[in-house]
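SAMPLE LOG
Freezer: B-3
Tube label: C17
Construct: single chain, 114 aa
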Amino acid sequence: GVRLVESGGGSVQAGGSLRLSCTASGMTFAFSDMGWYRQAPRKECELVSSIRSDGSTSYGNSVKGRFTISRDNGKNTVYLQMNSLKPEDTAVYYCAADYSRPCWGQGTQVTVSS
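STRUCTURE (predicted):
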């Protein structure tokens, strides 16, 4: 079956940067649209950014200009470069394939302190 493993989270101060990675297996990665989601305590799951199989990207309004999504089909990996982090970016971050089962699985914790 499909397996997605997120990594790269951590604790940073406001204004800092982190780079998240999500490595996929059990699927045809190059043909899949990939997305990064996040869920903060007591909040709904939120789509942060997505990258389609053709490389086109989209971002949520709250992260535009600060986050960059990219993919390496040779490594079956999608990345999320997060710059100028804010305390409100604090959440568990998840990746998902083809918009299926967002905010599901282990995820990776991102904590931004002010």
